[in-house]
Amino acid sequence: MSTFDATSEVARRPFAGRRARLGDVLLQGVAGTAAAGAVVLLGLIAYKVVEGSRLGLSTFGLGFLGHIGWDPVHNKMGAAVFLFGAAVTSLGALLLATPLALGIALFLTELAPRWIRGPVTALVETLAAIPSVVIGLWGIIVLGPVLRDHVMPALHSTLGFIPLFGTPSPTGTGIFTAIVVLTIMILPIVSSISRELFLGVPSELKEAALGLGTTRWEMVRGVIFPYARGGVAAAMILGLGRAIGEAIAVAQVIGSFDNGISWNLFNGGDTPAAKIANEFTNATTNSEISSLFYLALILLVFSLVVNTFAQIIVRRVARRQGLAAR
């Protein structure tokens, strides 16, 4: 057995070959109970969501995913509009947040003076601690009017021939405003993870690249990005999951919903999380309540898939780097 394999085996069995002590037994018991509790909690949440959505599943089936419209009076409900809104807002936010996050991470790891790294890092990570309702309120009062008066007209006049940039919203709310708000919310997640990944790049690799005469940008492009690309992809996936699951802030700024799909980013829209937040307490029929649980089930499944996919990427990167270090 190689040294690498032996180390891994010891890491998997930390108390192998040692006499059991009370502290070790208590540690294993407490840690095992906490892990089991997390699994049980997830199982209870999944059970309640599936139980609540059972009527919707039996009534609408998989056709619920492709049906447009939400009419509780005539018992005709579907998730297509909400899934479209979630896809557009989350992917748009990820498209805007990723280059900003990578730029912040590179600045803090490679370019910023040492005295400024700590304060800027703290300020960026503080964004993640701001309640979403506060960000949504700021989006209504401050961001919406700025986008309505300056950004939306400029985009419409320049790119108005593209259906995405049609007539600007008179209120400043809409899908585009939701995209900007979500960009602000996922920026700390992607930038913090990317920063840790960039700090984990061995200094020997960077110094060797610079010693060969490369510029700093060539070193970043040829050493840092390839080394951390798997982890950055996982960070982007986690940011995507965060964007799709956001409810309160999106519900505050995404505007009205007219039971249809519009490609104009300046129009209103809706997402599954925002729909649940807005309608659950006002739902009157069992079918509507079950349909909202159905939306929650879709979000739950997507969250599990996203987190599992991110873990697979992280483990593959760690395995590749571990084999490269042997």
What this model shows, in words?
It is a single chain. The chain is mostly helical and 326 residues long. Helices cover 73% and strands 1% of the residues. It has 12 helices and 2 strands, in the order H-H-H-E-E-H-H-H-H-H-H-H-H-H. It has a two-stranded antiparallel sheet. A hairpin with a 4-residue loop joins strand 1 (70-71) and strand 2 (76-77).
Keyword list:
single chain; 326 residues; mainly alpha; two-stranded antiparallel ribbon; 12 helices; 2 strands; disordered N terminus
What is this structure, in a nutshell?
The protein has 326 residues and is mostly helical. Helices cover 73% and strands 1% of the residues.
Shape: globular
Flag low-confidence runs.
Answer: 1-11
Average pLDDT works out at 85
How far from one another are the termini?
13 Å
The sequence of SSEs as H and E is: HHHEEHHHHHHHHH
